Amino acid sequence: MKISCIRMIPICLLLALPGAAASAELSVDSTSIVRFGQSDSVAYGTSNYRPATQYLGLDADKLGDGNLSLHLYGWGRADLADKSFNDEQVDGNFTYGYLQYRFKAANADIRAGRFFVHEGIVNEQIDGASIRSDLPFGFAVSAFGGANVHTKHLYGQDTDGKGDANVGGRLSYRYKGILELGFSGQYESEAPTLHDPANPLLTTPKHNHRLVGGDVWFSPYRMVELMGHTSYNTESKKVAEQSYLLNIKPVQHLVLTGEYNDHREQSYFYTGLKFSETALNPDTRSHSIGGKASYAINKNVEIAGNYKRYTRENGNADRYGGELKFSFLNNSVRSGVSYYYLRAGKQFAPASYNFSSYQAVHGYVMHDSKTYFASLDGIGYIFKEKVYNEQAAWEGTFSLGYHITPNLAASGDVS
Length: 415
Hints:
Layout: H1 2-15, H2 18-22, E1 25-34, E2 37-41, E3 45-49, E4 51-63, E5 68-79, E6 90-102, E7 109-119, E8 122-134, E9 139-148, E10 165-175, E11 179-188, E12 195-196, E13 199-203, E14 209-218, E15 224-233, E16 238-248, E17 254-264, H3 265-268, H4 275-278, E18 285-298, E19 301-312, E20 315-328, E21 333-344, E22 358-368, E23 372-387, E24 390-405, E25 408-414
């Protein structure tokens, strides 16, 4: 049923704009995937999976006076055998669908419908409207408002934990392509009451989700680029998240990257979830810092190495390794190999294992021509301590496809 609705949405919206659609430039993207699989376990027995998934997108430009456009995307899945995911035999999602009007002045535009908001510290999916415009002297302003797009219910709950209304915006300043500073805020209405799975009679109080913060992009020279953001939760009165990335190119073909990430669970996630009472300690902090160096030896070979340090309340870990990438025959053949080692302390992972350390090896090769395309991919995990009585896990995937026309291809894979 959901699949039929998703396919009808583009038709209904175009019928609502008959005059505009007649002169539109249409672009349709469709991908169909049918998978065959079998799973055997002591607890659940044998299951046969035949999920058929359809992805469908549509873009209609130059509607109306030429400045209006329509954008739609969604997917649907039907299980032709046993259920492959959750308890639904048929599932689907209307990912986005909105009208956008671009004004001829001030780089301004307005959107209405279902869309994603990426403004400074804000990353949300809403049903509503947004507007953006440049202002004099390098300033710009944007604002959005609407209803949250609700997703699957949380485990043991009859809600996804989100409130109903969500509004916010961003004010930014840009200087000569060198610096951009932004200040943004978000207010979400009261999140619904949650129940403690361990004590159904205990419920959490409703809370608002309020975030304010700033973001920066700074590139004083072509060889240096800094970007990042910090958000603050005004309800918990704590920093919610910090994330910064620095890229330096000291010589040609060499890129040095450093990153810093930090977030606190209660402030970073929805405040209404009240992790102190339902899931996690509200003061739980996840912190990581790392660096990467990549160098293009020539146009066919690139080498990279990186290191990352994870710090959590329940343990620490280090991840390091490197990779080699190759390209041949005018980039029609691409391949690569990599090796990484995660050295984790006790209780780093939320599982009943003393150690979470493992080695990961990966190799792949891909070839694309005017008539066919193929790929071979292999990955292996070697555990320091056995997981489900296994010392290692391996997977290989082979894919083969054929270009029927320049815009139509068919492919299949076995893993």
